[in-house]
Write a structure and sequence with these properties.
The structure holds 2 protein chains of 2 kinds. Chain A is of the alpha/beta class. Chain A is about 25% helix and about 20% strand. In chain A, helix 6 (about 240-255) runs parallel beside helix 7. The termini of chain B are close together. By secondary structure, chain B is α/β, with parallel strands linked by helices. Classes of the chains: A alpha/beta, B alpha/beta.
Chain lengths: ~450, ~325
Amino acid sequence: MKDAPENLGLDYDPVRHPEGCREGIDCDRWVIRGARLRDPSNGLDTTSDIYLGGGRIVGIGEAPGDWPADTAEHVCAEGHWLIPGVIDGWARLREPGHEHKATIATESAAAVAGGITTVVMPPDTIPVLDTVAVARYIKRRAQLAGRARVVAIGAMTQQLDGELLAEMAALDAGGCVAISNAHYPFQDLRLMRRALEYAATFDLQVLLQPLDPSLSARGCAHDGAVATRLGLPGLPVSAETAPLAQLIAMISETGARVHVPQLSSAAALKLIERAKADGLPITAGVSAHHLWLTEMDTDALDPNSHVIPPLRTIRDRDALRRGLAEGLIDTVVSDHQPHEPDAKLAPFPETEPGVSGLETLLPLVMKLVEEGVIDFDRAIDSLATRPAALFGLSDAGSIAVGQRADLTLIDPDAMWSLDSTGMASAGENTPFAGWDFAHQVETTWVNGRRVFLREP
Amino acid sequence: MAVKFVRPKIPKFAPDPWAIQFDEQGHLRHLLTIEGLGPQWITRILDTAEGFVSVTDREIKKVPLLRGRTVVNLFFESSTRTRTTFELAAKRLSADVLNLNLATSATKKGESLLDTLRNIEAMQADMFVVRHEQSGAAHFIARHVAPHVSVLNAGDGWHSHPTQALLDAFTIRRHKGDFTPLRVAIVGDIRHSRVARSQMHVLNSLNVGELRVIAPRTLIPTDVEKLGVRVFHDMREGLKDVDVIIMLRLQRERMEAGLLPSEEEFYRLYGLTEEKLAWAKPDAMVMHPGPANRGVEIESSVADGPQSVILEQVSNGIGVRMAVMSLCMSANRGETT
């Protein structure tokens, strides 16, 4: 596992505590008392005090020797759970390029309100994230916002046009945690194979979302009974499985490490299962909404259910749930795509696809735990442990002395229902408005700083 | 006598798209799709249409039902036949009619659909007749119009064309009476046809004996059986013992998308010729929503033959549209007809 990139990290964040420091109190030192600390990755499940200092976890149970008790901020967290901060592996923050939809400031605030401490951003910004300069700009904007950590995925081809390779090694050296061509297609398979070969030279993590542009053309809903009834142009499962099969064939030849951020179908899961069984370096993710919604949710022609890849059948959803429970699917992402209201004010096929998902990622996964679909350990594994490993964030995703103090405090008994107008994200485009949840995020620390505190 | 409408329970997060068609008293406010109307409303529309068809036989072809009301034909996609019949229907009900051809107008200049709608609403319209190239457009408009405005769907994308399906049912009923013993076959481009989808709903709602679709696999949408039809790929099998044959227009532009090798092959296999017509029942009706491509989906001698009711469909369209307009408008006036 490679070290977290320091040159782009938040370690040297010049921004003070976003809420300001209280006089005489060192806002970098925290004692969280009485919380149930839960990190299955290192077998931690204990009720204990935890000490944060200098952006790191400095003590669990006992204070470190040089702990200046009188200057630390104390938090009483009895009855609450403290879990590793969630790492969201695929979320659009819309900046630079689409600031009318959202900004890094608004979305990183939404992330921490949803218990997410690290947001991994694909390179489809304007300008495209194909140079270190753009990555630095994004980092700087995130630092100024002072909320969640934002880590960038570099472009695999210049301008994402699928024609010329981007300077992947430079992007890697500049701190990008992976490379991807977002949802843009390659000009041809030969170029895609070369891009994978080149990435494999430097052992770069590649993220590719299989979606055949010709099979998916005009499609806006799963090609099934609901789309047929509503007369919506269908997007067949083969638009996902055909390019995934090609990708797997190329992985076996090039040895590139590839992660598929969002599976949508049982058939694609089967391909992943076989490829994993063959020992190929492939991993997969799923978005939280694909674990809950199906094509039936497009039945009401609600533009908030317009997503790509589309919501598929109940059988597909159940297969994805099983895949997640068994660990075949590694991570759960938000696939966050905030939109301005106008983007969704049109007939269904004309609306822009995507949901605002940062604030529902953790609640939706915890709801799966509540319903017994997955266990708590798998939930944290998919939201923190495996994403940290995938993106080489070696000091995040777990609770242990010396680890980065990226932590989320949740109230396991809070009952609340989602009000889309009360969301922190600039995009209110959620199909989950009105849903009831338990497990509410109360406080979030990033780098040992408290970046979110729920108003009572 | 008012038909009692039992409002169905709407699930919290998946409102039925058709429930919006009714106002709080259960009266028909919009007509967007056949789904959810149920046989009682369909029958009521057809019965009302019977009365209006006789109006067109009178010397003065007008009734004052919609006097002082404004009907706006919002056509985002060009159409002559449908627009004209809606216009005539509104005029025979004494409404003021405004025709807006928006296919080449406002939205092409970058104005959003909602802005266009708001502007026309500001002109004090009472009813919008909407044709749009996108599925769900009529629902979208119905969700956003002012409370006093009714929306009639005159065709949205591949989704729905309710008045066409109702006039087809009306025509079949006039000739055959009861639907339950009938076998009906719909032939042609089912995949892209809003007419076919609405016909499936209306005929199944009226408890038709058997509904078939006949086309090559490329023109049959996924899981279409779930809409209550039997799928045939062979005309001889599909037309056997059929009472009604509905031919659909084969849109030439579709063929460029690689759905069919050629018009000639389609005509050879699926075009309705006198020879193929003989495979159906001897008194089978031949229907077509128009405009028919002669020599592509239908032979001229069949289109003009004794079994064809194509022109009758057009005349009936006016009466059926008058019925729908008057029923929706009476709901908006708070009347119970």
